[in-house]
Write a structure and sequence with these properties.
With about 120 residues, this protein is an alpha+beta fold. The protein is built from two helices and six strands, in the order E-H-E-E-E-E-H-E. The chain has a single domain, classed as Alpha-Beta Plaits (2-Layer Sandwich).
């Protein structure tokens, strides 16, 4: 499984298109709050300075089985790269199993598109 975090809407549109081109048809996108090297930002509310320790971000999750992980990482880096702080991070980790609730399929089969779903 891979998780990437970065800037809002554009990240979703561009990464979805790029992932589709390499054979990834399913992604999960979540709006999240977080901080890293940016350390949050100053924000003004009704003229009063407030310290915003958490910055809005987008989290994109992709689980792959047939597409090589290195290709997914390379594609994500190309899509996300701006050269500035906030480009995001990629986390890669092992998924023990996947189960499609509706059919009971597990593993590789659970991650495949069924003919009736297309």
């Amino acid at each position: 499984m891979g998780t990437g975090r970065g800037g809002p809407c554009l990240l979703y549109k561009v990464s979805r298109q790029a992932f589709n081109e390499i054979g990834i048809t399913g992604i999960t996108v979540t709006n999240v709050l977080g901080c890293g090297t940016q350390k949050g930002k100053e924000h003004y509310y009704r003229g009063v300075e407030m310290d915003m320790a958490l910055v809005p971000k987008v989290k994109v999750e992709v689980v792959v089985s047939a597409v090589p992980v290195d290709l997914v990482i390379e594609t994500a880096r190309k899509v996300l790269y701006t050269g500035h702080i906030g480009d995001g991070k990629l986390f890669v980790y092992h998924i023990e199993n996947a189960v499609k609730v509706r059919t009971g399929e597990e593993g590789y089969a659970a991650l495949q598109d069924s003919p009736e779903e297309l």
